[in-house]
Design a protein that fits this description.
With 120 residues, the chain is mostly beta strands. The protein has strands at residues 12-13, 19-24, 35-41, 50-51, 56-63, 66-70, 73-77, 82-85, 91-95, 101-108, 117-118. The strands form three sheets. The chain has a six-stranded antiparallel β-sheet with strand order 1-2-3-10-5-8, with no helix packed on it. It has a three-stranded antiparallel β-sheet with strand order 7-6-9, with no helix packed on it. The radius of gyration is 14 Å and the shape is globular.
Length: 120
Amino acid sequence: MDVVNIADVEAFATKDGSEIRELLADRNSCIRNQSLAEARLPVGGITTPHYHPLTEEIYYVLEGTGSMRIGEEVREVGPGDAIAIPPGATHQIRNTGGITLKFLCCCAPGYEHEDTVLVD
């Protein structure tokens, strides 16, 4: 049984500039076809616009508020919101609140830097 506690996970920066803690993935568990991570954006933080050619993502907001952009559509998001991001869709999230924006990131297949394409 693989059980990973967030307190035991080192943070790293993704290619888009967010700070994540990868909870479960092929690198640390029996999981092979997806990954689960907690992402954090500081107050005023914003990720670089990007897309994933292969990976679909789900963001699930835990704490804070943000502005989510997928393509040309922008929506305000907060705790309890789940956001579907299909493969190939350019997306970006901004922390618009007064506390750290925390959200879960589920990726299938699992997150890899090589599947992240930054958009200028």
